[in-house]
Specification:
Helix content is 39%, strand content 22%. By secondary structure, it is of the alpha+beta class.
Amino acid sequence: MSRAQVLGRTRATFRMHWPWYLKLLPLALVIVISGFVLLTGDRAAAAISFVLLLLLAVLPIALVLRSFAFSVTDRAIVIGPFLPFFSRTVVMLSDIDLGTLRSWSNLAVYLHQSSTPWALTVGQINPGSRSGISFFARRTGDLEGDALTENQMTKDLGGTIEILSATRRPTAVVGVIARALADSGIANEQQILATALPPGRLTRERGAHLREIPGHPVPFGS
């Protein structure tokens, strides 16, 4: 079976949040370095260094940050790949515990609640994260090319909680997921919207994620 047959068509893709300073830092460094070269009086060298650094540093970093996204298809939520040669994470809609689907307006607070360095979330949640969703999945899969295999770690743990930031409003994200669930005959669209919306706000209390984000306890973020 091909990937299109398993996952269906892509309905929407949502980019993940990044702090504004992380987006601007590479460009600022390029300007500073080129400025130092310009101080030597060699304008041509400064211009060349600016263009080369822009192409070799700023553009690749921008493309990597842009790759941090997830898509909603007819039958699944597909996360990543975040970097070349990495597999995608696939959560079939039928494997989501729909009672745990929630939307949030301040996801960055999760890092404080759980004392989790943002690098360990593989960029799915970072200091720039605002809106997003969370849900408990009974199973996840690893997608490489057209090959979809069950993730052994999730299987051994009995499930996992996925927490995904998105630059678009929670209503847009949940709306697409709810419609996909309804079209698949898995759940009633209005029931999903009533459960997942309006977006909640996480408190800054340490450990509060264990009671505020449905689906705990699981090892992820515990």
